[in-house]
């Protein structure tokens, strides 16, 4: 509803009350949407203006231990091994772990699991592991039971953030800004919501003879989307709460409660398999890919053996050794060159077949072909320095243990699907294709998509949330 120059919104806990958010007389719908993009609402009855008393706004004790906890049980019924299934080249749980680490607001980051493979992935992304007990690993176990067990075993934790592994579009700024509502504004619980514009109707059971009725609209005065604020719904991305609320009240949402509103494009929740391809496209555009700025990536190093080729050597009747190169991969290289990116192909002095292809590769791809030794970094760091670049400006594609240092350093890095685990753990992107079977083309498309995304962000390009 509207009252004068204010916009009113209601949040139901145990009773209704309103908070007034000032809006200037000349404000447009777009400016109001931007102004209300991150509104918080107090649920402390008696503080109906949404503000805490001055004496309660004092900065919270900085020494409180803030922990992030991601629940990742191994027995997913909908999608087997869902929590570590690759989504856009990264294990699903890796997306939220990267956001949590880069937010730099947590004193510790944990994954609660009962599964060995999930434990390995969690540790490779920088998390500690809480091996949950069988009692809280059942299909019937609730999140609250699992979180309570963690808090009981880790009494030093004061504030806990339960992050959902199935929310891959979570960004560090979401977590940072939400935590400030607890540490700076004195709330006890903060959870994420998204604004939905959906008209709801009463469900009618078959054979009941009842008629349905509208739950949140008057059909005689059906509002246009742009004239309706919509409703706030939990999107499940995260739930911040204090230990006191968990231990004493047995609640994730209790005490002084506030919500943190996330834009729809960041509200991706994977529950059923059909969501996976849709989520993958959303993540590629709106996911958090780390601190590196993809738009400045200007140089790519790519191994020939195992990336551009499948690593196999064919022998002819006459004794000639042959390797094959996929045309999709060479077209991917040309796509990068078309965007003014230099691509350097790497051959090893331990692989004479690939080295013998140097001249032909250079002619076919238009790339410089460079021979590297056992430690590629020793040879490549000189090239990076000569071109006056930082490693964040470099993309690197490798496929084995000698590439690990370069994979870690590069602003963007990738390995084929069939690379060994040591290389996969070091890379920022794992291709869905194997070496010599389109992996280079896939990584090229990934680089260009991130470049397009960065340009869109620079231009403050956003979806019209009213038509999302």
Describe the overall structure.
The protein is α/β, with parallel strands linked by helices and 468 residues long. The chain folds into 2 domains: 191 residues, Spore Coat Polysaccharide Biosynthesis Protein SpsA, Chain A (Alpha-Beta Complex), CATH 3.90.550.10; 158 residues, HAD superfamily/HAD-like (Rossmann fold). It is 30% helix and 20% strand. It has 15 helices and 20 strands. It has a 7-stranded mixed beta sheet with strand order 8-7-4-9-11-10-12, sandwiched between helices. Strands 17-16-13-18-19-20 form a 6-stranded parallel beta sheet, sandwiched between helices. A 3-stranded antiparallel beta sheet has the order 1-2-3, with no helix packed on it. Helix 2 crosses helix 5 and helix 9 runs parallel beside helix 15. The chain is elongated.
Shape: elongated
What would you give as the CATH superfamily of the largest domain? Spore Coat Polysaccharide Biosynthesis Protein SpsA, Chain A
CATH first level of the largest domain: Alpha Beta
> Major sheet: size, sense and barrel closure?
7 strands, mixed
User: What is the annotated CATH architecture of the largest domain?
Assistant: Alpha-Beta Complex
Give me the CATH fold name of the largest domain: Spore Coat Polysaccharide Biosynthesis Protein SpsA, Chain A
Compute the number of strand runs.
Answer: 20
Uncertain segments of ≥5 residues (pLDDT<50)? 1-61, 459-468
Structural class: alpha/beta
Rg (C-alpha, Å): 26 Å
Q: In oligomeric terms, what are we looking at?
A: single chain
Number of domains: 2
How are the strands ordered across the major sheet?
8-7-4-9-11-10-12
Overall pLDDT metric: 80
Helix content: 25-40%
Number of helices: 15
End-to-end distance: 22 Å
Strand content: 15-25%
Family: Belongs to the CMP-NeuNAc synthase family.
Keywords: Nucleotidyltransferase, Transferase
Organism: Etheostoma spectabile
GO molecular function, one term: N-acylneuraminate cytidylyltransferase activity
